[in-house]
Amino acid sequence: MKTKISIAALLGAATTFPVLADNFEAGPRPLYLIDKMTDGPLKEKLASCADTPITRTNFSIGHRGAPMQFPEHTVESYVAAARMGAGILECDVTFTADKELVCRHAQNDLHTTTNILATDLAAKCTAGFTPANGDTHASAECRTSDITLAEFRTLDGKMDAADTTATDVAGYMDGTAGWRTDLYAADGGKLMTHAESIALFKDLGAKFTPELKTPSVEMPFDGFTQEDYAQKLVDEYKAAGIPPQDVWLQSFNLEDVLYWIKAEPEFGAQAVYLDDSYNIEGWDPMDASTWAHSKAELKEMGVNYIAPPQWVLVTLENGKIVPSLYAKEAKAAGLNIITWTLERSGPLKTGGGWYYQSIEEATTSDGIMFELLDVLAQDVGAVGVFSDWPATTSYYASCMGLK
To answer: Do 211 and 250 meet the contact criterion of CB atoms below 8 Å apart?
Structure first.
């Protein structure tokens, strides 16, 4: 049975988006990845689910929607993720010049994620376009805080990319990686406020994981403090009548998480600490002496969810993917583990890059993706995995009976 999700009243859009209410669509990619796997029990199990419809699952989290092919944080991207069975969708949250909350991965990414440089609003950017010249790369910096909400609404979303060798704006904006596509960005993706994302996700039947992004501007901003910012995020869920158990607030800033735990304990109970300790020189997921906080200490602070990148949670033993010490300690401390980001690395035959660095030697084909996902789910015990193409994660979770 199909349910029509109308967003005409919500966003002034002139269309509706059909979403499968009972069955969701995985498309050909999961089976393509299965074909690339090494023969064995896991491949046989996953292949056996080829004719079984996938279901919606909270294990599958739409990372900014489905940005492998759709412009991130747009209506189109979110609807695509929901169609692929993502049970939770992410709106990264930042704010405009008039302190309104909007969905963007960073406060200062409008020059790579929207068409702002091709509009009159380019004149308001923190740093306008500078063409490449010799060894100097092309550059620009446009922030949501440079413009008002009304101005933000005039922009179109595009694939997040920039060609830093470009000598003009058109070339700079045309930098999409070859393994992604501009096919679904041609008409411009519909941008969203945070409040609008709440309404859309609710209508799509999905749950919520907003990330409070670190501001590019100095705080307080025109009297708007970091605590005001964190509180406003929660207030928009309260205003929409969303139950706290359907929301997983996120931040890389531990102080934000601790604020929610104290000020909004119902929402704080599921607040997710996005652990970026890997940025500390000498930090090692296999050496607890290099960690700023033990996992037990985080639990004692009231943190219940932790979310490092996927490479932090795994290592290799005799060529086999196994949980890292970090993963074992987090599990032992009673922390719920979420991780990121599957389907964000392009083809994996050359080692997989940043997201696969701890298992680079074993990353020789796209077939490793399901092997990694299986270890994350079954051995690490992750309760959710972000993906740029949620069909892959949804297929795995549905096949394995994960909710």
So the answer is: yes
Contacts (Cβ under 8 Å, ≥6 apart) of 271: 248, 249, 250, 251, 256, 257, 260, 261, 303, 304, 305
Chain-centre distance of CA 261, in angstroms? 22
Q: Which residues contact 394 (CB under 8 A, 6 or more apart)?
A: 24, 26, 54, 55, 56, 57, 59, 60, 84, 85, 86
Pairing mode of beta strands 207-208, 86-89: parallel
Give the count of beta carbons closer than 10 Å to the beta carbon of residue 193. Answer: 20
Nearest one of 373, 364, 370 to 339, comparing CA atoms: 373
- The two tokens of residue 304 are 């219940």
**Residue 273: in which H helix or E strand, if any?**
strand 272-273
CA 9 to chain centroid, in Å, comes to: 27
Considering only CA atoms, which of 395, 379, 369 is closest in space to residue 86? 395
Strand partners, 5: 17
pTM, two decimals, is 0.96
pLDDT under 50: residue ranges of the chain: 1-6, 11, 14-15
- At residue 2, the pLDDT reads 41
Helices within 114-225 (DSSP H only): 149-152, 169-173, 194-204
Residue of 114, 105, 113, 171 lying closest to 137 (CA atoms)? 171
Nearest to 88, CA basis, from 53, 60, 54, 68:
60
Name the burial class of residue 346, with classes exposed (0-12), middle (13-18) and buried (19+) by CB atoms within 10 angstroms of its CB.
middle
SS3 of the chain: helix, strand, coil, percent, to 5:
35, 20, 45
